[in-house]
Amino acid sequence: MIEDAVRFVLTSDAAVAALIDQRVYPLTMPQSGKLPAIVFQRISTVGSYTLEGPATPTAARVQLNLMSTSFTQVRQLAAAARKALDGYSGRFADYIVNFIEVVNFLDDFESDTGICRVVMDVRVHSNEGA
Fold this sequence. Notes:
Blueprint: H1 2-12, H2 14-20, E1 24-26, E2 37-50, E3 53-68, H3 71-85, E4 90-92, E5 95-110, E6 115-126
Parallel strand pairs: 1-2
Antiparallel strand pairs: 2-3, 3-6, 4-5, 5-6
Helix pairs in contact: 2-3
């Protein structure tokens, strides 16, 4: 899955790992999970087509929820994640990641939990589905 490539890029980056170690989770954070952390999910996939049928590259949009109890810390995490992901290209398992681009991010605050969030959307162009 291309989401594994996104997780790999994040956990392999020294600046991101210094803030969250390996706390990058698919879909939900474990009940016992510590903050800061990142939760990710794929929110869309758009394939490429020619007159002969499906083609590559595929563009998958992955949403990251970066969370911390500190606004300053979550913004530091967002800056580190953006630097690690934006423009990344390389090979991961059976996939060729042509490039990753950060397409959107916004700040959020959950008043009932006191959690500060940055919601970041990235588009991953790859040979997934080839």
